[in-house]
Design goal:
This protein is α/β, with parallel strands linked by helices. It is built from nine helices and eleven strands. A seven-stranded parallel β-sheet has the order 3-2-1-4-5-6-9, with helices on both faces. Strands 7-8 form a two-stranded parallel sheet. Helix 5 (about 100-125) links the parallel strand 4 and strand 5 (about 130-135). The longest helix has 29 residues, at about 100-125. About 40% of the residues are buried. It binds NADP nicotinamide-adenine-dinucleotide phosphate (NAP).
Length: about 250
């Protein structure tokens, strides 16, 4: 058995990755907060592969600890960790931003990712096999106005990915940072707290789909063990850079 953990698997990129990996019969440990969605996904995918689900909030250190305890028997044969859960909240200048939004981004995108990785990594090292795939963003390479905190979290993911690769040198563990541009998922709806405003983000252009990113993740996983795709930047053809979007 070779388990793959996917955080944030209840929607968007995480869900598409779960669906794609399930179609290859890869056993999955799916994480997210929305228990009902996790149950539906488990029901749907378990005809193709083994699926275990754990609903908890990555901002809660105690809940991560509990997951690591309960899932211990699975972790001893876990080889892949896809750190996908994350979010942006609000499009505000920093001086006008909400402290709750700031904390939610830092606690999820940075602390949650670090704590989960710190908990799972010893098992990968012990197993002498492992691949950690982090979902960074082009926001981790280019800062844009009214995105200071979200960009800061994704710069952190990028720096962490680079540093972790150095710390793991000499082990067989690979670390990949995937950095997409605009992907049409629940991301903008969560950020703007409005479905209609979210639809406007993609108006007149063709964004990436969650499946595009899932296929990229699978491609990275499938490279031979001596090949580590360190980072990948993926934009839609209609987006040249952050803020430069062609609309028909
Ligand atoms: N969409 C884009 O344009 C884009 C571009 C670049 C990078 N990304 C990155 O890609 C990753 C996936 O985003 P997405 O586009 O697929 O967005 P999404 O559809 O909103 O999915 C985000 C996932 O993260 C989970 N999540 C959020 N907060 C959580 C928490 N506190 N604890 C546990 N799980 C949490 C959500 O699950 P629950 O709500 O069930 O917890 C959900 O499954 C994120 O890291 C995002 O920053 C997205």
């Amino acid at each position: 058995m070779s388990w793959t953990i996917i955080s944030g698997s209840t929607s968007g990129i995480g869900l598409a990755t779960a669906e794609l990996l399930a179609s290859r019969a890869l056993p999955l440990i799916l994480l997210g907060r929305r228990q009902e969605r996790l149950e539906e996904i488990q029901k749907k995918l378990q005809s193709q592969t083994k699926v275990e689900i754990f609903a908890f909030d990555l901002r809660d250190r105690g809940q991560i600890k509990n997951f690591l305890e309960v899932a211990k028997p699975l972790l001893s044969t876990t080889h892949n960790l896809i750190n996908n859960a994350g979010l942006a909240r609000g499009v505000d200048s920093f001086q006008e931003s909400d402290l709750e939004d700031i904390d939610e981004m830092i606690e999820t995108n940075v602390n949650g990712l670090l704590h989960l990785t710190r908990g799972v990594l010893p098992f990968l090292i012990e197993n002498k096999k492992g691949h950690i795939i982090n979902l960074g963003s082009v926001a981790g390479r280019v800062v844009y106005p009214k995105g200071a905190v979200y960009c800061a979290t994704k710069y952190a993911v990028r720096a962490f990915s680079d540093g972790l690769r150095m710390d793991l040198l000499g082990t067989p563990i690979r670390v990949t940072n995937i950095e997409p541009g605009m992907v049409n998922t629940e991301f903008s709806e969560v950020r703007l707290r409005s479905k209609s405003k979210a639809d406007q983000v993609y108006a007149g252009m063709t964004p990436l789909t969650a499946k595009d990113i899932a296929e990229t993740i699978l491609w990275c996983l499938e490279r031979p063990a001596h090949v580590n795709i360190q980072e990948l930047v993926i934009y839609p053809t209609d987006q040249a850079s952050v803020g430069q979007v062609y609309r028909r």
